[in-house]
Amino acid sequence: MAQVKMNLKSNRRWAVALLAASSLALTACSSSREGTTAAGDTQVAPATVTITPAQGTEKARPDRGVVVKAAGGTLETVSVQAGGKPVEGAFNAQKTEWRSRWTLRPSTSYTVNATAKNSIGTTSQAGSTFKTLKPEATIGASLDWILQGNQGKTYGVGMPIILDFDRAVHNKAAVEKALEVKAEKPVEGAWRWVGDQKVIYRTKTYWPAHQKVTVNVRLAGVRAAKNVYGTKNLSRTFQIGAARISKINMKKHKMVVTVDGKKARTVPVSGGNASTMEYTTTSGVHLTMEKDNPVRMISPGRKKGDPGYYDEMIGWAVRISNSGEYLHQTSGQEYCLGKANCSHGCVRQGSADAIWFYKNAQPGDVVDIKGTNRKLQWDNGWSFWQLPFETWKKGSALA
Predict the structure, then answer these.
(1) Model confidence over 317-375: pLDDT tens digits?
(2) What confidence category does residue 124 fall into, taking pLDDT thresholds of 50, 70 and 90?
(3) Which one, of 168, 166, 178, 169, lies nearest residue 104 by Cα?
(4) What is the arithmetic mean of pLDDT over 167-187?
(5) 100 pLDDT above the threshold of 70
(6) Domains of the chain
(7) Which residue ranges does the record assign to the L,D-TPase catalytic domain (predicted)?
């Protein structure tokens, strides 16, 4: 009889415990689903919003941008402004974080406002007003002179984008991330650093013809070196015109010019006589760089009275390298055109052909020369197409 009483007492304890556990389980499910207890109290804490830089910061580093994070919920809205202008940014996939896309401007006040919601829709708000630091030193950038002041000018399909800085860049990766090239007909391309103050962009293949290209240099706020920041952005838009490609065979003394894939002209030419290395035309992919009529040409490494010395004004000249190579009007020896190489390294043409080429040439047109034993170096002028693209890309700080 005593044993039975003990079992009944034990069973009662078990039943009470089971009932209590069931009650707790139901309350937990209700809280998760409904968000309230039986008394109607909220069980889910509001989301916490953290803004960096924090409220009142006076010397925020502009290269670190703005970061907004939500804990215990997701971000709903983020607004960042400076002088009434919005700052670009993006959420992560989970909408728990927002980051500004570009660096901030130095010596500038910013206002941030953000909202977030927890799992039951409770809204949280946060804000921050801060100021970025004043840099100890600044850095500026300029596009190669051929693009300066030529907004909307038309260029050839081989045209590179050359950016020069007014002081050394040590944080090359940070600067390169701030460079943006946008084309109506996009094609793969890459930047390559040449020293500490120059970076060059070229495409993998020639630009598709007849389109607009925009270069954005978002340098403001970029930390280019210790305590050195950019303060201004730079933007240029230019046109890629017709695909003008000239192929010159020095052994056949002939140039064939195509425009948008169609043959436009066949021209008898005369190249360098190859009596010395400097009098040998270089073989490789050149680009037209500039033109003038006339151009004063002086023999390299020779003074007046030396054998081979010359000092002449030459008409209708289009430069294709930094080593003194031009396509120009012949200054005599017309009998060589189409038959022999008689020049001092330039490519000579008859008057009518030279005038036609000069008037139609765009900066960045392709001049592909073959048939000589002197190879064009990739850094001789705009001869960047001499490097395979995979090699070119290795010069990027982001490779």
Answers:
(1) 999 999 999 999 998 889 999 999 999 999 999 999 999 999 999 999 999 999 999 99
(2) very high
(3) 178
(4) 98
(5) yes
(6) 48-131 (2.60.40.3780), 137-241 (2.60.40.3710), 244-378 (2.40.440.10)
(7) 244-370
Query: What own/partner pairs with CB < 8 Å and gap ≥ 24 does 323-327 have?
Result: 323/278, 323/282, 323/380, 323/381, 324/278, 324/297, 324/300, 325/281, 325/282, 325/286, 326/295, 326/297, 327/246, 327/288, 327/354, 327/357, 327/367
Torsion angles phi and psi, residue 303, rounded to 5: -115, 165
Which of 286, 336, 344, 346 does the annotation list as catalytic?
A: 346
The string of DSSP codes covering 118-137 is -TT--EEEEEEEEEBPPPSE
Q: Which token pair is 14?
A: 């078990």
309-313 long-range contacts (CB < 8 A, ≥24 apart) are 310/344
**DSSP 8-state secondary structure symbol assigned to residue 62:** G
Active-site residue, selected from the candidate residues 286, 328, 336, 344: 328
Question: Which two structure tokens, joined as six digits, stand for 218?
Answer: 């978002």
The yes-or-no answer on residue 342 being catalytic is: no
Structure tokens at 272: 């360098």
Residue found by looking up tokens 């992919």 in the block: 285
Residue that is written with structure tokens 């829709």 in the block? 121
Annotated catalytic, 170?
Answer: no
Q: How far apart are CA 269 and CA 274, in angstroms?
A: 15
